[in-house]
């Protein structure tokens, strides 16, 4: 481990690059009229992915960086689901013909907070408004603490075939500090219940860098997770941005490990998972050898979207719900972030688009370069630049941050082939950032690179 590089680059605040440009650069120049035009221009026979955001939880986890709100009552959730039904109709009516759907993802918040019959009705509405492939992946994010047997049955009946369980850490001291008490036994019960119901593709989400977290507690969480043998695990570093997420102020900075300790935790988790037979995919995902994500990585088809690494190769993403982001050929769109504002837009019969970003040809070029760096740890600049009708030399001349990274061995450039050596892959976001034309405008709101 090069402690000097960790110290030098680890505190730099950088995007996760689940999109380019990143959401802070969206503006109200993209509005409902723009989105409607983009929807109408979707090419015939295009395939799309759907993302539905459910911004409700029963309690707040102090580490959370998502758009969510706490609701003890079911009525606000039912009202919101009714708005999702209306938005589904509004968007499907804008397309020239029904869109084929290969991926559906329910994110949150806690999507399984809704009543089982509401969830099944929502999936049915999607099937009526779009052509959902018989092979489509339907994925749902789950809080194991609140999942019921009835909801497990609803997930299976609705055709859900992949779920992500929030685990984060099994350390009681860490759980207390983040306001998320979740026993191993509860997680095991939910995992076994899902498998009995036929939902066999199970992901676990883990986090390092949490308050009071140690290498020992990280490894204990990994050991217990391996006992349950999930198909995939995502291992994210905690992003402490209390300026933008006020509930994170309940976590004292002094409780958090420094960059070097965060890096040690990340490496220890990765080494333990690989020793247990998991294959590392990109920066922070791990999967069993037979998993489709490993196949995508090996074939050079791994992609990056707002959920992280994905096997989804579609070029259209339609977002539903408050704060949901969509992607089309022309650019990005994002709905109203606040639930009340979202409900008002939809109830008036209008699309809920509040902001977005129209992509230039240079944006599309840089997005492709950054995605390949993040997915493959290498990129053939000459090939990608040729696809976009520009010269790689011109791109490299305008990439001043790259020189320092090459000088420090974080990246290598041989001709037009840029690679990130295995020893510095933990800094891949720094290499991707070298191609980010907007970085200096948004660094303060992102999380530390390590």
Protein described:
The chain has 450 residues and is of the alpha/beta class. It folds into 2 domains: 14-320, pyruvate-formate lyase- activating enzyme (Alpha-Beta Horseshoe); 360-448, Orthogonal Bundle (Arc Repressor Mutant, subunit A). Helices cover 37% and strands 22% of the residues. The chain contains 16 helices and 21 strands. It has helices at residues 3-9, 32-40, 75-94, 116-129, 149-157, 172-178, 184-196, 215-228, 259-275, 292-298, 339-347, 361-376, 381-387, 392-397, 401-407, 428-433; strands spanning 13-14, 47-54, 56-57, 69-70, 100-108, 131-142, 162-168, 201-208, 232-237, 279-281, 285-287, 303-305, 308-310, 317-320, 325-328, 331-335, 353-358, 378-380, 412-414, 417-419, 447-448. The chain has a 9-stranded mixed β-sheet with strand order 10-11-9-8-7-6-5-2-14, sandwiched between helices. Strands 15-16-17 form a 3-stranded antiparallel β-sheet, with helices on one face. Helix 3 (75-94) runs parallel beside helix 4, helix 4 packs parallel to helix 5 and helix 8 runs parallel beside helix 9 (259-275). The protein is globular. The two termini are 13 Å apart.
Any idea what the CATH superfamily of the largest domain is called? tm_1862 like domain
Q: Which CATH architecture of the largest domain is right? A: Alpha-Beta Horseshoe
Q: What number of structural domains do the residues give?
A: 2
Shape, principal axes of CA atoms: globular
DSSP helix fraction:
25-40%
How would a crystallographer describe the biggest sheet?
A: 9 strands, mixed
Q: What is the spatial order of strands in the main beta sheet?
A: 10-11-9-8-7-6-5-2-14
Helix/sheet category: alpha/beta
Give the CATH topology of the largest domain. Answer: pyruvate-formate lyase- activating enzyme
């Amino acid at each position: 481990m090069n402690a000097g590089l960790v110290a030098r680059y680890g505190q730099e605040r950088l995007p996760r690059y689940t999109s380019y440009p990143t959401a802070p650069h969206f503006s109200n120049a993209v509005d409902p009229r723009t989105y409607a035009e983009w929807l109408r221009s979707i090419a015939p026979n295009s395939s799309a992915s759907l993302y539905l955001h459910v911004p409700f939880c029963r309690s707040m986890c102090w580490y959370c960086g998502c758009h969510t709100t706490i609701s003890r009552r079911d009525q606000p959730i039912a009202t919101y689901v009714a708005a999702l039904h209306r938005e589904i109709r509004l968007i499907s009516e804008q397309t020239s013909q029904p869109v084929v759907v290969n991926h559906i993802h329910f994110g949150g918040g806690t999507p399984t907070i809704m009543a089982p019959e509401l969830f099944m009705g929502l999936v049915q509405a999607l099937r009526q408004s779009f052509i959902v492939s018989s092979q489509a992946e339907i994925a749902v994010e789950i809080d194991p603490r609140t999942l019921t047997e009835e909801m497990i049955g609803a997930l299976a009946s609705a055709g859900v075939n992949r779920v992500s369980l929030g685990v984060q850490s099994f350390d009681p001291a860490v759980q207390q500090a983040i306001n998320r008490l979740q026993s191993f036994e509860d997680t095991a019960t939910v995992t076994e219940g899902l498998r009995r119901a036929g939902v066999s593709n199970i992901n676990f989400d883990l986090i390092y860098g949490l308050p009071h977290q140690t290498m020992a507690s990280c490894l204990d969480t990994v050991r217990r997770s391996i006992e349950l043998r999930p198909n995939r695990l995502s291992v994210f570093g905690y992003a402490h941005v209390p300026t933008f997420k006020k509930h994170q102020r309940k976590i004292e900075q002094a409780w958090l490990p420094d960059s070097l300790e965060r890096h040690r935790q990340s490496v220890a988790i990765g080494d333990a998972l690989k020793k247990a037979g998991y294959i590392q995919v990109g920066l922070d995902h791990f999967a069993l050898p037979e998993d489709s994500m490993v196949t995508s990585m090996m074939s050079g088809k791994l992609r990056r979207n707002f959920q992280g690494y994905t096997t989804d190769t579609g070029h259209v993403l339609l977002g539903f719900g408050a704060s949901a982001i969509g992607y089309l050929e022309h650019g990005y769109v994002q709905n109203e972030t606040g639930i009340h504002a979202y409900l008002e837009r939809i109830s008036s019969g209008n699309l809920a688009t509040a902001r977005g970003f129209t992509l230039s040809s240079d944006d599309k070029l840089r997005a492709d370069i950054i995605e390949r760096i993040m997915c493959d740890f290498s990129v053939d600049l000459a090939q990608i630049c040729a696809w976009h009708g520009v010269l790689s030399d011109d791109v490299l001349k305008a990439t001043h941050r790259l020189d320092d990274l090459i000088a420090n061995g974080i990246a290598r450039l041989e001709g037009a082939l840029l690679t990130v050596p295995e020893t510095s892959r933990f800094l891949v976001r720094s290499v991707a950032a070298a191609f980010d034309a907007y970085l200096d405008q948004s660094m303060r709101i992102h999380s530390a690179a390590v």
